[in-house]
Amino acid sequence: MSARPTGAGWATGGTAGVLVALGVRFDYPEAVALGFCAAALLAFSSVWQAVGARIRATRVVEPNRVTAGRSVECLLRVHNAGSRTVPALEVTEVLDGRERRFALPPSRGRSTTRVHGYHLPTDRRGVYRLPPPVLTVHDPARLIRRRFATEGDTVIHVHPDHHPLTSPWPGGERLTVDGVAARPRGTGMAYYGLREYVVGDDSRYIHWPATARIGTLMVRHHGVLDTPGLFVLLDTTNLAVGEEFEDAVRVAASLAVSALRAGARLTLCTTDLGHVPDLGATPEARVTAVLDFLAGVEPSETVRPPRFRAPGAETATTVVVTTGPNAALSPGALVVRVDPDTTGPEVDGVLTVASSADFAAKWNNR
């Protein structure tokens, strides 16, 4: 909390000194009087700030996770513990290196609490530290300003945008490690073998030929099919930056969110060995964890391994998202290459898209 002259305050003080000096030097009492008036006004502003507003403020940010392009909603609770009316407040917020200022209406009366709402726009994804807002109070003449700082930083996750996909798998099909299409069965069950009958087994599953041969009731043993998996590898080592890289992140986010909401196992990695530390227990918690991870992804100087496989990726459909020409990141993978120039010849196993929106359109029509 500090009180300092504003630009007008410095000008008033300087003018007061000049007028007094000139008035004394040239025997001009009117100039001296004007100088003392200016000095008195500056002194009044200083005293007003010293005995004036006593402000406490707390800020609540809800939600602290938003999609890029949307605004962060802030609620600022301002309590005036002083006995005087507080003039209009100026709130200063700094997000993503940019300063934003908001004017709040006066707070009247002692022990008055008011809640003010405002929005902080977000332009690009990232993980940002939102420092405490700074409240500035001016005296009635706006010669002295006093600043009040609240406490506590807030971490803001600005998630990449993602597009709805009809299926997380190419052409709506899950691919095995050999690239063969495998559609999950409607029953969700698979036949694994025979076992002896136990009380409570469904009689429809009795295998009569084996029962006649062995002499003991045998039933078909079924189990739940393995949950289909998707391995998404985001190439962060190419030199492409800016909107091309952002499109690649949005493509990875679209695939990951679609897979999680389809109930698939998801492995999401970057070529600098980054991965989601904890996917959470519920589907929405997993989606949030993935988007939090992608919010902080940045291009890396780490050398790309020539053939990258994550643990467990052998049993999952692999999709590599890259902005570069190298498609040999992972054996047997489908490569999604982000390149504004899509006029080149088509390459088997490579889907070239101009943007993330173009990817969604082509993916849904495969």
UniProtKB/TrEMBL annotation:
Please provide the record's keywords in A-Z order: Membrane, Transmembrane, Transmembrane helix
Which top-rank group of organisms is this from? Bacteria
**Transmembrane regions listed in the UniProt entry:** 7-26, 32-51
Where would I find the DUF58 domain in this sequence? 194-271
List, alphabetically, the PANTHER family matched.
SLR1927 PROTEIN, SLR1927 PROTEIN-RELATED
The name under which this protein is listed is: Uncharacterized protein (DUF58 family)
What is the originating organism of this protein?
A: Actinokineospora auranticolor
